[in-house]
Amino acid sequence: MSSVLRPLASLLTVAALVWSIAIGWRIWTTPVRYQTISWRTNAQGQTEREEAFVFRSFREISGLGVAPLLVPIALAGLAFAAAVRRYAIVVATSVLMFLLFMFVTGFSIGGAYNAPGVLLFVALVVSIVDRSKFG
């Protein structure tokens, strides 16, 4: 059983890291469609509604630049490095911080990180079981 658990946590964390990199790139480059609605008064004093569709990428609208996309990559990378070295407490800390990031950014980009969040959580459980059973 130990021979299965030891590489499993590392495998799960590297999968989460690769997913975080891929989804970060996707979010950074994919344009998002916004609908804008405005009201204006014409020369006759009538109010007119104007609608427009705008396409903007995350890089154009992010006030923090690329930083929000680097946070999950850094946390998944830390979890991977800790899993390779079998540091369960560091894995736990990075996974909990990753899950907190997902919660805080849940209404914007956090939902894209659900899959790596689950992978990291499972890696945490595996890491704790491995550490407790096999020293």
In a nutshell, what does this entry contain?
This protein has 135 residues and is an alpha+beta fold. The protein has one domain. The protein is built from five helices and two strands.
Instruction: Give the termini distance in whole angstroms.
Output: 13 Å
Mean pLDDT: 89
H/E order of the elements? HEEHHHH
Kindly name the structural category.
alpha+beta
In percent terms, what proportion of residues is strand? 15-25%
Percent helix, as a range, is 55-70%
What is the domain tally?
1
> Any low-confidence stretches, pLDDT <50, length ≥5?
none
Strand order of the largest sheet: 1-2
Q: Helix tally?
A: 5
Largest sheet: 2 strands, antiparallel
User: How would you describe the shape?
Assistant: rod-shaped
Output the radius of gyration: 21 Å
Number of strands: 2
Description:
There is one protein chain. The chain is α+β, with helices and mostly antiparallel strands and 135 residues long. It has five helices and two strands, in the order H-E-E-H-H-H-H. It has one domain (2-30, 62-134). 65% of the residues lie in helices and 16% in strands. Strands 1-2 form a two-stranded antiparallel sheet. Helix 1 runs antiparallel to helix 3 (67-84) and helix 3 packs antiparallel against helix 4 (88-104). It is rod-shaped, with a radius of gyration of 21 Å.
